[in-house]
Amino acid sequence: MTHKHRTKDEQFILCLYEEAEKTGDIENPVDRYEVGKLAGLHPKAVDAISKLLIQANFIKKAGEVEIYLTPHGEKLVLRLRSE
Fold it and tell me: N or C: which end of the chain has fewer CB within 10 A?
């Protein structure tokens, strides 16, 4: 099986999904900087990626640092996982 290279945005949203899955509910808020660490990103990159994903309606803010997946974001993750 070939391993497809993922963009930093894709890696971030996949890590977000995995962390949310661990809480038992995909829509539970997760610390975006913790997700960034798992994806190997610096805090400034996390801020930039979060801003773009919020604008694209893939994630929503649940506080200053907490974010969660929207149904649109969940569809993206499931599509990425199936590739």
Answer: N
Fold of 8-82: Arc Repressor Mutant, subunit A (1.10.10)
Pairing outcome for strands 66-69 and 30-31: antiparallel
44-77 pLDDT tens trace: 999 999 999 999 999 999 999 999 999 999 999 9
Report d(CA 65, CA 60) in Å as an integer.
11
